[in-house]
Each structure stands twice: as structure tokens, then as C-alpha cells.
Amino acid sequence: MHAHSQTLSPTIRDHFLADHRRLEDVFEQMLDAFENGVREELSSLWTQFESELGRHMDAEERFLIPSFARAHPEEAKAILDEHRDFRCKLEELGVGVDLHIVRLTVADKFIDGLRAHAHREDGLLYKWGDKNLGVHERDSLLRALRKRIARANRASLKEGGSK
């Protein structure tokens, strides 16, 4: 088996955009649970969302941003600053979810910020990664993303099966 079918495999951009869509889906499920007052489901979905978003940012920071930073230090710093802000907001929102005091407008503002951030990453980071990462870096990143997605899918199936 040879792994030189690089042109047939999904791009870094494809993987991250699919991940963004999955995160958005989980967030939409959370909003439904929020609007319907299903607190236990909301809490479970929040935990899933928080974990998956954290892993998503970790993958970018570990495999993509260090190389990107050598070429575009200011843009890389801005992305990392946004990640730090999102982590702080995630923590604040998580406390609100636990205490059942999150307001829908706060949640909507958070997801709007994530959407803008995702659009920025798509225009800068992912396209750059597909053009500039070496084969080893690219393979490591895609392997890590596939593992993360498989882990998230297993967790989702486990959650769905236990309730």
C-alpha cells in the first residue's frame, strides 16, 4: 500500500471546514435544547462542544500555526489571541450553562465570533497550510484530525446510546 494519493485525499482546508460544520451542528443542537428547556441534554451537548472546540484549536496550534507563524507572525499571533479569548469565553459560558443562567443573546454572540474566526482561518490559515506544509507535517495534522473526529464520533454514539 502506497500513500502517495495525496491529490485524492481531502485537503487540510476540507478537514477543518468539515470540523467547523460539525461544531456548528452541535451548537445548533445546544440552542434547540436551550430553547426547549432540556437542561440535561444542554449540559451534555455543551460538554461535547467545549471538548471538540478545544481539540480543534489544539490541532491548529500544534500542527499548523507554528509553521504559519514563521511566514506570517502577526496573523498567527492574532489567531492565537482569538483562541485564548475563545477559551476564556468557553469557561465563562460553561459556568453559565452549569448554573442554567446563559442568555441566548450571549450564546449567539459567541457563535457569531466563532464564525468570523472560522472565516478568517479559512482565508488565511487553511489555504496556506495546503500550499506550504511539508508532507510529514500535513500527514501528522490530518492523522490527528481523523483521530479527533473518530473520538468525537465514539463519544457522541456513547452519549446517544446511554439516554
Q: Please report the distance between the alpha carbons of the first and last residues.
A: 41 Å
Number of helices: 5
User: Compute the gyration radius: what is it?
Assistant: 17 Å
Name the average pLDDT: 82
Order of helices and strands: HHHHH
Shape: globular
Q: Under the CATH scheme, which class?
A: Mainly Alpha
SS-derived structural category: mainly alpha
Keywords:
Four Helix Bundle (Hemerythrin (Met), subunit A); 5 helices; mainly alpha; 163 residues
Structure description:
The chain is mostly helical. It has a single domain, classed as Four Helix Bundle (Hemerythrin (Met), subunit A), CATH 1.20.120. Helices cover 86% and strands 0% of the residues. The protein contains five helices and no strands. α3 runs antiparallel to α4. The longest helix is centred in the middle third of the chain and has 33 residues. The N and C termini lie far apart (41 Å).
